[in-house]
Amino acid sequence: MELLRRKCPGCHSADIQHHSPYSTKNHGARVIYKCEHCPVYCSETKHTLMEGVKTPVSVIGHVLKARMEGLGLHAAARTFDKAKNTILSWERKFVALHQVLLLYALVHEFIESVIEGDEAYTKVQKHVPPDQSRGWTILLMDRARRFMGAFDGGKKDRTLFHKAIKTLDKIASQTHDLSIFTDGERRYGPLLFEIWHELVNNGKPGRPKKPCKRGGHVRLKNKGSQAHKTGRKRPKYQSPWREHPETTRTIEETDIHANHAEAFWSALRRTCATFRRKTTMYAKSTQGLQRL
């Protein structure tokens, strides 16, 4: 409840009192609060998502939905009779909400967590080969809560994945049993292992082994043909490295999938024009793509 307690924006004191009500044009009645330790008066929307917003929320929803459907910034400003900077401020305001939700997720401790990882490709500014495009977006989604722990965009390189795994490491520290399922990008395995491993001292001579962290499960799906060059058949799902010896829980093959992440991409391609296949609606920058 400490996170939800209203505090003074000047001295950050929690000792504030109800001062007077006031009426708004589109959002009903609100309350003015007065701090008991400094001469500061503040509204109940101070430092919230609705601070400074005078437009009805329903109108904001229609504008943002039109932007997701592919309506350009200048066209949206003409259609809804709003300033261009006003629409941009709404988009940036809702983008910043994800950081607040991530902080809220990190203050909870979970017994078990299942993370699905996947990435999607689209075009940014102009048509270039996929390995040179800045339109790759990596997604790490919690299966139970559908919360997106990471949703970063850029080139499909080490920097993009390193940033996402750092976020995942914060979530992993709040759970006792973490499972990660990806769609088979094997190049990410070594990068993940560099960040998410620990040393195990078993008392035997020699260099200590470096398995995955305790309680962690990572499974990759072998794409394409399961037949190996030597004639041996590769398993459909496999762990890219050694697991911790104290990790005992087994995972059924029916539970190893990234269906929820794939469903999210399908829904995003239906609602957001810049992610649709065979489209000429390119985003102008990676920041704009993330905002949409």
Question: What does it look like?
Answer:
This protein is α+β, with helices and mostly antiparallel strands and 292 residues long. The protein has two domains: 1-49, no CATH class; 110-291. Helices cover 29% and strands 18% of the residues. The protein has eight helices and nine strands. It has a six-stranded mixed sheet, sandwiched between helices. Strands 1-2-3 form a three-stranded antiparallel sheet, with no helix packed on it. Helix 5 crosses helix 6. The chain starts with 15 loop residues before the first strand and ends with a helix. The mean pLDDT is 77.
Set out the fold topology.
Elements: E1 16-23, E2 29-35, E3 41-43, H1 57-68, H2 73-80, H3 84-95, H4 97-106, E4 113-121, E5 136-142, E6 148-154, H5 158-172, E7 178-181, H6 188-195, E8 216-221, E9 237-238, H7 259-271, H8 286-291
Parallel strand pairs: 4-7, 7-8
Antiparallel strand pairs: 1-2, 2-3, 4-5, 5-6, 8-9
Helix pairs in contact: 5-6
> Distance N terminus to C terminus?
32 Å
**Count of DSSP H/I helices:** 8
Q: Report the average pLDDT across residues.
A: 77
> What Rg do the Cα atoms give?
24 Å
Structural class: alpha+beta
How many strand elements? 9
Basic shape: flat
The neighbouring-strand order within the major sheet is 6-5-4-7-8-9
Largest sheet: 6 strands, mixed
H/E element sequence = EEEHHHHEEEHEHEEHH
Beta-strand residue fraction: 15-25%
Question: Would you identify the regions where 5 or more consecutive residues have pLDDT less than 50?
Answer: none
Share in helix: 25-40%
Provide the domain count: 2
Oligomer: single chain
